[in-house]
Amino acid sequence: MKETRALGLGPVGLWTSYLDFQPAARVREAAAEIEELGYSSLWVGENVGREVLAQAGVLLSATRRLVVATGIANIWARDPVTTFAAQCTLAEAYPGRFLLGLGVSHARLVEGLRGHRYERPLSAMRQYLDAMDRAANVYRAVRPSPLPARVLAALGSRMLSLAGERAQGAHPYLVPPDHTAHAREVMGPGPWLMPEQAVVLESDSIRARETARAHVARYLSLPNYLKNLRRLGFADDDFRDGGSDRLVDALVAWGDEEAINHRVQEHLDAGADHVCLQVLVSDRTRLPTEQWRVLASMGA
Asked: CA 233, 236, 238, 239 torsion: positive or negative?
């Protein structure tokens, strides 16, 4: 899988927000089990739950080999110097096991929640990366060697290009394999491409789509995602009532293990280096441990 092998990554990792609903002791247990199941990475996000870099430290301390990645750390949540320092701290303490994913988030989370002005996100990301790079010249603590990698949450062509130029690659979220093919075309063969893929391990179409639609519906009020979905050929009719079957099926793979594996392979064939499976269940306060175990053979 190209250079992702340098991080010890196989074709499949896990992405989850469900750890935020568990006490820290259970989080450590879950991370250790995910590692023992053979997954090579565990991705966690940042919204209104745990602070993502502190969470990454908890997960790293509970495991020995697992690569822990932020998918993503919000650039509006901390200044670039702090982010660079945190990245170096974790990368030096856990060599080759921490991957920083950065993203611009969404206006309502940045302005309404954090009180910042959300404007010109591409320029904001470029300036943030510039400041992180300048921070490397003044950082005085023990440094990791080599300097750690970073990836960017990227959907549109300009952010994908930036991810290929100023980071090791991209971590697109809520995307079908068609987007993966587009992203690979934009970035070229070298940069890492690590899309998230939501899955429901359920063969009954009614139950599967009910869980999948509840997930997709949460994103249909966010302009960044809607704009990207329109670029991929979806229209207003697909965004009503939590999403059309066509949209839900494109964004969430559901069915048995073979069906999930088929979707992963579609991403890999389209140019992905590493696919981050987000296993969905109807109760978000419950960890999908049984589903993680069933799908573990894909993580090798």
From this structure: positive
Question: Secondary structure of the chain in the HEC alphabet?
Answer: CHHHHHHCCCCEEEECCHHHHCCHHHHHHHHHHHHHCCCCEEEECCCCCCCHHHHHHHHHHCCCCCEEEECCEECCCCCHHHHHHHHHHHHHHCCCCEEEEEECCCHHHHHHHCCCCCCCHHHHHHHHHHHHHHHCCCCCCCCCCCCCCEEECCCCHHHHHHHHHHCCEECCCCCCHHHHHHHHHHHCCCCEECCEEEEECCCCHHHHHHHHHHHHHCCCCCHHHHHHHHHCCCCHHHHHHHCCHHHHHHHEEECCHHHHHHHHHHHHHHCCCCEEEEECCCCCCCCCHHHHHHHHHHHC
Place of tokens 């509006």: 76
Closest CA to 31 of 235, 297, 289: 289
CB contact at 8 A, 98 and 71:
no
Domain ranges of the chain: 2-299
Condensed to tens digits (0 to 9), the pLDDT of residues 166-223 reads: 999 999 999 999 999 999 999 999 999 999 999 999 999 999 999 999 999 999 999 9
Would you say the pTM of this structure is higher than 0.90?
A: yes
Euclidean distance between the first and final Cα of the chain, in Å? 12
Of the options 3.60.20.10, 3.20.20.30, 3.90.1150.10, 3.90.1490.10, the CATH number for the domain spanning 2-299: 3.20.20.30
* Tens-place pLDDT, residues 251-297: 999 999 999 999 999 999 999 999 999 999 999 899 999 999 999 98
